Amino acid sequence: MGKGMDDTFYMQLALDEAWKYQLLTYPNPAVGAVVVQKGAILAVAAHQKAGTSHAEVLALLSTYEILSQTTIDFDRFDAQRAHAFLLSLPKGFFSKCSIYVTLEPCAHSGKTPSCASLLSQLGLKEVIIGTTDPIKGHDNGAQIVAKQGIKVTVGVLEDACKDLIEPFLIWQQRAFVLFKLAQTTNGRIGGGYLSSQESLQHVHRLRGVCDRLLIGGNTVRTDRPTLDCRFTGENAPDIAIYSHEQTFDDTIPLFSVPKREVTITNQLDFLKQPSFVLVEGGEGMLKALADRIDWLLIYQTPKLSTNDLSYNIEMNLAFLHQARMGRDIMIWSRDIGH
Questions:
Q1: Tens of pLDDT along 245-269?
Q2: What share of the chain is helix, strand, coil (3-state, %, to 5)?
Q3: What is the pLDDT of residues 156-181, one digit of tens each?
């Protein structure tokens, strides 16, 4: 393989790792990183949760463990501690390593220290970047690293790296709207739980980070759901019920979940606010929101069903990423219109 082929191979590994945490990093972007030395992959890592160590830091900590054959004795997700530890290593420890990162290392210090500053001080052999940081004030990371004489390459699998951070760009301006649906292989949606335990846990993790869970009134009346995060233990999301009819049976379980705000509305003005909104519902909800949905997340289970319910709607989708989720296939997709 030539250098260019190598670069795309390693960047794809970083992308695949980052997609595992897509949206779970909210309000941060999903980012992946891979460390390579003399063609050997030493670490593959991704940012997992806002306020914790970034992808580059996690990858470098794993690299340290491989090269030193020791295990760190502190919480690797503690960004301050991790940065201080990496900066305390002997000069040149990572000098033969190249790091691939899907997004330009952050130039500013916020809840976590600057990754660009860290990389520039560690003196790596090369930093290969998928796409530049589109947020003014956060960009410039590549220049900070290059000023130290480190080779910097930008634009490897750039389109795929931009797809990865599309939600991050949208929720700077307005709500990023994700419609979640679960279906059988023949496209049926009714009849109890369709998804594997892994898929259900993933949905509950998304519920745990979203600003609001939006659901249609018909689904609430018919399914009488709880809509909590019992499979993961996170706080249950606030709920917006989209309904023209404002009255509901208050014994429906979702109304009695503690520390939750439930609003019943026939307006969608709240989608103008920068936020992450998760939508769960049937065909009616999908049709009502068709022109406001950014992405669809499809959990497809390996089963054929005689249930009559399906999403009877015309939509053209582009598949962005797919992965196994237990026995299911999980497909991230974007509506590309007609």
A1: 999 999 999 999 999 999 999 999 9
A2: 30, 25, 45
A3: 999 999 999 999 999 999 999 999 99
Q: Is pTM, for the whole model, over 0.85? A: yes
Residue partners of 308: CB distance under 8 A and separation at least 6: 188, 190
Active site residue 104: no
CA torsion through residues 83, 89, 91, 95, sign = negative
Report the alpha-carbon distance of residue 8 to residue 29 in Å, rounded: 21
Q: CA-to-CA distance for 227 and 158, rounded, in angstroms? A: 37
Q: Tally the residues of the chain.
A: 338
Bridge partners (DSSP) of residue 214 are: 240, 279
Both tokens assigned to 154: 């930008």
DSSP 153-188: EE-TTHHHHHHHTHHHHHTTTSEEEEEEEEEETTSB
Q: Round to whole Å and give the CA distance between 248 and 31.
A: 42
**Sequence-ordered strand ranges (E) for 53-114:** 97-103
Choosing from 56, 126, 280, 314, the catalytic residue is 56
Token pair 């130290």 is found at: 148
d(C-alpha 56, C-alpha 45), whole Å: 7
The count of other CB atoms within 10 Å of the CB of residue 276 is 21
Distance of alpha carbon 292 from alpha carbon 178, whole angstroms: 9
